[in-house]
Amino acid sequence: MNMSDDDLSTSKDSNKHKVKKINSHLISRFIAGLLPNFTRFCAFVVAILLLFILIVLFIEAWDAIRINGWSFITSSTWDPVKGIYGALPAIFGTLLTSFLALLIAVPASFGAAIFLSEIAPSKVKNIASFIIEMIAAIPSVIIGLWGIRVLVPFMADFIQPWLSKILGFLPFFSGQPTGYGFLTSSVILAIMIIPIITSMSREVLRSVPNSQREAMLALGATKWETISRVVLPYGNSGLVGAIILGLGRALGETMAVAMVIGNSPNITFDLFSGGMTIATKIASEFGESGGQSRETLIELALVLFVIALLVNVIARLLVWRATKVKTEKG
Amino acid sequence: MMFRFKLFLRKLVNLFMLSLCVLGALIAISVVCIMLGYIVVNGVAFLNLDLITNTSVSAGEQGGGMRNEIIGTIILVMLGSILAVPIGILAGVFLSEFGSPRINSAVRFTADILAGVPSIVVGVFVYSIIVRPMHSFSALAASAALAIVMLPVVARTTEESMRLVPDSLREAALALGITRWRAVVSVAIPGALTGIAAGVMLGVARIAGETAPLLYTALGNNYGFEGLTKPIGAMPMQIYRYAISPDANWQNQAWAGAFMLVMMVLFISLGVRWISSKRKTETNN
Fold it and tell me: Tell me, what's the ipTM?
């Protein structure tokens, strides 16, 4: 960056100097034209990549899409010998684990976000939010390692027997407590999306103008009344966006879930039973597959991509709108 | 009397709900602490020099290490960075210096969406466009997959840190008669350099632990590094393989490897946080 300016260099030979000056002028004009265009090209690469992924996956999966037809999402048989490829168990598992993960993560995250933005003194705030966000930095394979070596035995020995003892009359908790399966996967997913939902919804709460809070407090409302009747409704759509963003992460999470879900094609609401998700099915079977089964797995990847795309677009739009309000109002 | 009771009730509800919120925060924090505690305790217990100097052994044997995988991860992260950093930084420069508001928000939006694409999908994509045409799993394909994961991180952090450079500096440079590109290259970029570096480090931390995009691009290789067009091993993949095996020696090595990875990642994110908080106070003054 530290280029010495040629124009200022003193040269005894004035003729030589002139040539040099023209050169540097030309170079300068050349770069002036090049730089914006080159950077624009790079920005274009970032933007076009999404479309490129979509097109490539679509082309690769096209044969499978045509041959499998609707049985791809309605059938639960996956039989390469007979050529039947039904991905229903994977789709079911993805939806079930993501939903359960949200059920666990949303109350905890909203509590944490309210704590961070409304209650905590600023010193506690910084440390607490740093610790919570730290988990987002831990690679998912390591969370999976913790899951399979610590959480799975813990679930099998304590949580699942306890649940089946108290709530065993419900179909959800009546299975064999093995530790692996839908419930453990959902807990792992919940742990992974808590920091995302927390930090996003904290941003949303932070963008609620202080005048709103002060007005409510001046009317004699308690802190909770202020939060529940003014702060949360004000950030409404942004909070929904934060949840959906968490959902997007949960849908596509691969390694950590693959290690604890048990990888079996079950469609059941027995939460102790093993299952699979779209991502874990791809991760565990792509290597051994070939021909149509590989194309079907690419079709599955395409389905996951499109779902993640939709979920993320909706979430970003909601969060973007909610936090934009503040910058406009100052 | 009635009023007093109602007030008492409201205060009770207030206290109850606020403590629930505190409980939520406590749960989130304690989960992180428990997990890190396990990683540190188990990781340190099995940490030894063999882990870095020895190659892997088969299940059932004692000893062995992750030398090949550590080297593999370093190679993959470096190659991925070489691919992603220039494009990412230039895209960020465009967003902050040259773009029009409409194009900018479109690019920014797609970058955010790209960051949310499941990494296994990126793996399948790279398999389709690189591994299959080349008929081989390769370090090249794996680093391309990592680059796609890294790209949005670098682009967005570069843009954000260049926006922190005050416009007055650019205007001062332009007022001195400097050309536009020169103002960008000599004033705006140097001003944002620490922030850009922080963004690159953040991207490195992100891809160093990625596993899913490597499964069917890098595949793994027990014989160490054999060239860019050959399969290559990486630490996260080895941790995965070891973690799900019943072999005790392998499991111990998985914890030790996880400890090393986590320490590196946390070190980077702590450093980045420190740098960016320092920069923010500087620019505010």
Answer: 0.92
